[in-house]
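Anyone? Bumping this.
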Amino acid sequence: MSTAIEVEHLTRRFGAFTAVNDVSFTVGTGEIFGYLGANGAGKSTTIRMLCGLLKPTDGHARVAGHDVGHEPERVKERIGYMSQRFSLYLDLTVRANLEFFASAYGAHGRELEHRIGEMLERMQLTAIQDEVTGSLPGGMQQRVALASAVLHRPRIVFLDEPTAGVDPVQRRSFWALIRELAAGGTTVFVTTHYMDEAEYCARIGIMVDGRLVALDTPEGLKRTHAPGRVLEVRGPKLAPALDALRGEPGVLDVSRFGAGATVRVDPERLPGEALGHWLRARGVDPLEMEESAPTLDDVFLALTAGAQRGED
Amino acid sequence: MHPLVVQYRAVVVKEVRQTVRDKRVMALLTLVPLVQLFVLGFAVNFDVRHVPTAVVDRDGTVESRDHARTLLAGDTLDLKAEVRDEQSAEELVERGEASVALVFPPDFEEHVLRGSGARVQALVDGSDPVRSGVAADAVARHAALRASQHLREQARVRGETPPRPAVELVPRVLYNPELATAVYVVPGIAAMLLLIVTTIIMAMGLARERESGTMEQLQVTPLRPGILMAGKVTPFLLIGLVDVGLALSVGAWVFGVPLRGNLGLVALATLLYVLSTLGTGLLIATLSRTQQQAFVGGFLFMLPAVLLSGVMTPVRAMPDWLAWVTYLNPVRYYVEVLRGALLKSAGLPDLWPQVLLLAVFGAMVMAVASRRFRKTTA
């Protein structure tokens, strides 16, 4: 797999504040790369540097083969960018927006018409092309924004929280479009704070306080940062039993959740059946017990909690 | 087609579409200046006429009544009231019911007939200097006229040739023979309205792009700041030209402003002037974060620009240090070109310094705005 984005020791300081601190990673061509982090963790600053909007203080980054610090114009020709604000001209029609952004990248004449027609079709916007963009619901504006970001067929698209404030159904169909883009060979660099969306990414980088603290596939992250098995338990007299459970060997984490609780255990030291016996012996009977997989939420919480402890 | 041309055309088309869609902006660009020109052309009037006048005739003779009658016969002074004593006349002036009070002393006729220096007193309300100046002037001129008439009459009675005054002034007014204010004021108002409309529209337009996030979207495209600025400015240059055309038509038809000079020169100066005002608008936008700040910034520039341009008060009447400031003001040069070309049919040989300075100002402010724009975004 060839490399689309290459980041080495990238650093950006604003005065005494370091927004991005010595970050290095590579993204392969056609990969969907997720970038996760709390607000202010340095996601947007990283994206702004990769798009040539902001010069790095230190280190460098090559995007589509060009250095973002030295040749930002070359980089801009080859990338697409969509921000969470959708950044469209709300007083213009859908078509007028697409025409403007396509021509800003130099497309004109029959080529322009062809690309717009094709893009309207693909994003299912043909029927509303003459509507004023501001009158459209959020989900449609989001598709128009994506269409104007990829109309010039960039090799890499940067999506900065592209699904913020959009309902789950629209989010799902939006991700179908993103996967389609990647299948066509476009590299997708996306930031999000929805963990379910992060699962769609081939690899995920997690930013905490300006540092890239983890980088792996979703499965790899879970294995490393949220190991063990997660068991959801339900039953009578649960509360006193759970309190007693906390100190037992092999129990990694106990958290109450609705009428039941989630218990994460080290299966080597405490297999599921042993936990069942243990709970029944303390009066939790009938006991319902169901195994579930660890999620990226668990990973994220483990990493941010770790970073906070490290700071103290 | 060259990519730069494609990009430039894209920005122009986008600006035109946004402007045409926005009914308020369209009104601001066309209708509002015309209505304002119409209203201000009538309102800003330095002609002093029909000044309310109180008369206190304590003489009550043919001579005093005749003097008052002939003085009030003109356009300048109108009889408001006849009162018995100075005190009531002063009260009228104080209450603002009269601006001038004429007081004839009891021995007025006697002094006139004896030729021993008759006096008529004029009380003038000085709170409006222009008005009181013209009124006092009218009273003085009339007194001088009456005096010389009396001298001639007495000479004729005595059978002598009437004496001629040693120096006689014969004024002849060029370019604006009727001294009509509108002819002088309308070009100034046109320049002022153009300034307000173009500066504000441009400053607000760019500030709006920044507020709504489209500016950030523009910055990730390969569109260069110079092309973006040029594209944004172009439609408004043409609108400015149309506005001036409309303003001069109204000026000519309604206010009788002569269209004497080289209209091509007027068009050239208009383009350079609007380039300056649009560039200033862009510069203000790069200094503001929000549309509100851009709006306030626009006014902070426009108010002194109008006051220090010679539109309202002549530059010659300003103190030296302030007159120097006006050399930095594009409004001044444009008004000079308009008045020079339209009223005096002055051409490029007379007005080239103004046109050149407008070009220099326009190019400089656009360059600074582009530079600042690049800096604030990089």
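Late reply, but here is one note on the structure posted above: Chain A touches chain B through 31 residues (CB under 8 Å).
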